[in-house]
Design goal:
4% of the residues lie in helices and 41% in strands. The protein is built from two helices and 46 strands. Strands 1-3-6-9-12-15-25-28-31 form a nine-stranded parallel sheet, with no helix packed on it.
């Protein structure tokens, strides 16, 4: 063999018929020019069309996996952590299907367990990842994964929904489970969510005992003997690590996953570009993970993604301090829930959109009664209240006129989310609101949408 030339797994005895376990043969190809220090010689290992069964986790050691087409399949044949452990800087996986076959926990595990080796500047492109028990693509907490790119891939049909027994909540962070086996052998704290019937939203599971779970945020209702479901596994799960910036998920489809399309709780987080993130069981995207205190400060980008039919929100920001989300060109927003854990106002979120940067503020997630709006801000509401909330619009005073001139805008933007059938009444102490006397105001109860409030110096137009 010529040093540095592509290797063909068939030359090492791999079976493309899907009959025998090819893990040893494939690993031999990876190891031929691989480097156990985690930075291989970047030799291409070529996989002709076929199905290659693997009963042990493959470790790339810097080798590149190049498939002939998506009809080239690496498929789990037994219960393993992942089909592929991607290890080595500047490595890539291209043009291949990875099928966890509901046996492997993950299709691809990025990183290392022991030596803290990273996968900087690596690439996954033109791939299909499917049927993992948990996450399709899991970034480990070990090693740096800077400048990692996932491009033009289909990441779907991952995760598990566990539903056995009933749950009891008491309006706190604790839920008691009956009728289930020992949950400590099943639930993965800081990964999984629980949804209890009668509750507005699923809750992140923070800790677990045999029969109890601690969640974030607090339950809003007291529920006894209600059905529950625990959701596990996302298309892409980006775990927290101190240096994993500039990860890009782009031009891909992340759908039909049991928790989220993209579950993103790293220090700097992933940038999500031009993706279709739809029909996931809970969320399109989760940003940040933690309890009342943020797990890490967070920074993220979000551009031109298409979100559809992720029932409990398209983007959920949970413990995302100092996050940045770009909504340029977006006209509607689905539920965005930023949980401080105590229902208080949670500042430090920046939105970039419509050619401007706004300081942003989240109105209290639980039952905002009266809020005084300010010029130059974008408000995200989450109000599962029993009565309408009141948003007081600025009036024509010298202070407001000064703010008007400073921000060079006559607009206030409000995302209306999770209105629970009640709505928000916009009113003003002077002038009119949509032609109605300002003191009466106008009620908006359209859920999952954004409205802009325009000021002409005396009157308001909202739409």
């Amino acid at each position: 063999m010529v040093t540095g030339a592509p290797l063909n797994v068939l030359d090492f005895g791999a079976d493309p018929t899907g009959t025998t376990n090819s893990a040893a043969a494939i690993q031999a190809a990876f190891d031929t020019y691989g480097n156990t220090a985690g930075t291989g010689k970047f030799v291409d290992v070529y996989f002709p069309i076929g199905t290659y069964l693997v009963g042990t986790e493959l470790v790339t050691n810097g080798a590149n996996i190049i498939g002939e087409s998506l009809d080239t399949i690496i498929k789990a044949s037994s219960a393993i952590r992942s089909c592929i452990k991607m290890r080595g800087q500047q490595s890539r996986i291209a043009n291949i299907t990875v099928d966890a076959n509901s046996l492997a926990d993950n299709c691809i595990y990025v990183g290392d367990d022991i030596n803290n080796f990273g996968t900087n500047s690596a690439l996954i492109t033109g791939c299909k990842l499917q049927y993992a028990k948990y996450d399709g693509l899991l970034f480990s907490t070990q090693g740096n994964h800077n400048n990692f790119v996932v491009d033009r891939s289909l990441i779907w049909l991952h995760g598990t929904t566990y539903n056995t027994g009933t749950a009891t909540t008491t309006g706190t962070t604790l839920v008691t489970i009956s009728g289930a086996a020992d949950l400590t052998t099943f639930v993965r704290p800081m990964y999984d969510y629980i949804h209890v019937a009668g509750e507005t939203l699923p809750r992140a599971i923070i800790s677990v005992t045999a029969t109890t779970l601690t969640v974030n945020p607090v339950f809003t209702n007291t529920v006894a003997g209600a059905a529950y479901s625990i959701h596990q596994g996302s298309g892409v799960c980006l775990m927290s690590h101190g240096d994993n910036s500039e990860i890009k998920i782009q031009n891909s489809i992340l759908n039909l996953n049991k928790l989220a399309g993209l579950d993103d709780h790293a220090l700097y987080g992933a940038e999500s570009y031009n993706n279709v993130i739809e029909s996931n069981s809970l969320f399109g995207r989760v940003i940040g993970r933690g309890g009342a205190t943020p797990h890490y400060p967070f920074s993220a980008g979000d551009l031109r993604n298409y979100y559809e039919a992720n029932p409990f929100s398209d983007i959920r920001i949970e413990a995302g301090l100092n996050a940045r989300i770009d909504i340029t060109g977006e006209t509607t927003l689905a539920l965005i829930s930023l949980n401080a854990g105590d229902g208080s106002v949670y500042n430090g979120l920046t939105y970039v959109g419509n050619g401007q940067t706004f300081d942003s503020e989240l109105v209290k997630p639980l039952n905002p009664s009266t809020v005084n709006l300010e010029f130059g801000k974008t408000y995200i509401t989450n109000c599962p209240s029993s009565a309408e909330a009141i948003f007081n619009l600025p009036v024509s005073t010298s202070a407001n006129e000064t703010a008007f001139r400073e921000h060079m805008t006559s607009k206030i933007s409000v995302a209306l989310t999770n209105l629970n059938g009640q709505g928000i009444r916009f009113r003003s102490a002077t002038g009119t609101v949509n032609g109605v006397a300002g003191a009466t105001g106008v009620l908006f109860s359209t859920n999952y949408s954004a409205v802009d409030c325009y000021f002409d110096g005396l009157n308001w137009t909202i739409g």
